[in-house]
């Protein structure tokens, strides 16, 4: 088994990344905050969204069968895939039977998860990503570095160099020109493609409708121009009713991009109907499990599956803000990635990921469906540790230290006494505000951490003396 | 079969009794004293150009404004029903030609030369080079004031790509079709009953994929007009 390590050092040393990443994420956070602040009952909407998604999960088989029935009722076909390989094989079979040569894809994270592009290429198909960010990432043969903005790690200079090398474009720093070039190149592909593949944001069980949210118009084109449309959907994306969309779309778009609504929301119910002039002749919905039912097993961890892939937790995460997506080495990155990946794959392969968090809680606070990410991280950390210990409780110095710490801080009296003593010892233990005795095993811990000294006075003492004047 | 395997696994893990019931009451959505005005304001915020075309005179002026922008000679109208619904006087210039149900309506105009009645011709879709048609004109099923959104249905328009392929898209919206908010819309809409695709449109096509810089007009139109009619 390949163990995936988080590459902190390279990410921090990458100057271009560091210059691009933080300002971009900061902008996302600001627009999200602005869009959310104008909604008076945001908390109520979050509760509703969470409840709907949790309810759907509890009755998941029921809603999946209902969705299937209604999609079939519209003349669509529904396939079920146990694994990523199964899904890829199904798509290849559909393509072969219909002599498909060119495939246009709109954004699908599930497609990334199951390495669809590689699979289709191996099967002899030409595959073109049509979302601008995905197209950039595909041209340089990389992975997306963010759920919503896949080419977030690329600066305009990077893109200009890429287009110069791959598309023979004149060098430019003008983002509008770069976009126009991509539009013109992709236009041709849209008109030539025989098969369009899209993801699914929500599958409405009661009507058999799939919802695809986008801004560029590429999803509309990918799902309308080619004669076959295949929609890839994780089994957790089903929702019960049309009316639930009113809340879920509001939560999704405001959290993802800070838009009141994205430019386009596609509500697709099967293939072209009689009397319609265009649209695909055939529509397939592939329901993919690929490890999801495994997550489903644990009733607490199950809430991981309520994620609507808005990327807000990535934008706000202080760790992600410094590392970017690629450092994680996985398809899903940042806070949501750190809880999703270890549950979908053998945990030992990504055992670092649950630890790549300061547990500050910003992710849970921003999450539109209130996933308790920090608590889940702790549970997964516990699982990793148990696996390391092979189920045996060992006495480690760290464990003894932690037990003592827990004992001290669980009583305000003990805490006061301890801090008073520590403050007295400070002149011996600290020099220039840094913890001095660098002896093992403490030194290993100190290698990457600064230990600040204690303030000369306790906060309470400070308040009683000086704060009283105010 | 994978279907049975997945379903039976999920059923095994399912709780004996569901504890989380589906909430029955959808949270409040904002109401507006003047939904039409809110629609206009929100649509403009999203980058839509909203024009008044309620009188024939204003409608002609609005369409001239569109052609000014497009420098176009071709307008591609969705089905003939659009003229009836929005009471636009028009004449077929090729009444004899059998375009029938599978046809689209095309009219030609000199730059800024829009006038009523519209001289429209029926052509079948494959006779029209859609990507080269500068302007498509469709009818909105509904407008949603809350976000300045218009809703297009493939049943009414007969086409999905009409709204995205041309560089300029015009939508005719009857003021009485403007709904207050998304709750009202999703409570009343019957998805998939008559159409294979509905599209919610809020402003022109856009991207911010490079350095989060906003660019208008990617794969879809660079300009979206909504004419109140």
Task: Write up this protein.
The complex is a heterodimer of chains A (470) and B (229). Chain A is an alpha/beta fold. Chain A has two domains: 8-293, Rossmann fold (3-Layer(aba) Sandwich), CATH 3.40.50; 397-469, no CATH class. Chain A contains 22 helices and twelve strands. Chain A has helices at 8-13, 15-37, 42-58, 60-73, 84-97, 109-113, 116-122, 132-139, 156-167, 175-192, 218-224, 244-256, 292-296, 312-316, 318-323, 334-344, 362-366, 373-388, 397-409, 412-429, 442-446, 459-465; strands at residues 77-81, 102-105, 126-129, 195-198, 202-204, 209-214, 228-234, 238-239, 264-268, 282-288, 430-431, 434-435. In chain A, strands 1-10-7-4-2-3 form a six-stranded parallel beta sheet, with helices on both faces. In chain A, strands 8-5-6-9 form a four-stranded mixed beta sheet, with helices on both faces. In chain A, helix 16 (334-344) packs across helix 18 (373-388). The N and C termini of chain A lie far apart (62 Å). The mean pLDDT of chain A is 92. By secondary structure, chain B is of the alpha/beta class. Chain B has a single domain (32-228), classed as Rossmann fold. Helices cover 24% and strands 26% of the residues of chain B. Chain B is built from six helices and 14 strands. Chain B has helices at residues 2-13, 35-45, 56-70, 81-85, 154-157, 182-188; strands at 49-52, 74-77, 90-92, 103-108, 118-124, 135-139, 142-144, 149-153, 168-173, 178-179, 197-201, 206-207, 215-216, 223-228. In chain B, the strands form three sheets. An eight-stranded mixed beta sheet of chain B has the order 1-14-9-6-2-4-5-3. Chain B has a four-stranded mixed beta sheet with strand order 10-7-8-11. Chain B has a two-stranded antiparallel sheet with strand order 12-13. In chain B, a hairpin with a 4-residue loop joins strand 7 (142-144) and strand 8. The radius of gyration of chain B is 21 Å and the shape is globular. Chain B starts with a helix and ends with a strand. The mean pLDDT of chain B is 90. At the A-B interface, helix 2, helix 3, helix 4, helix 8 and helix 10 of A face helix 1, helix 6, strand 11 and strand 12 of B.
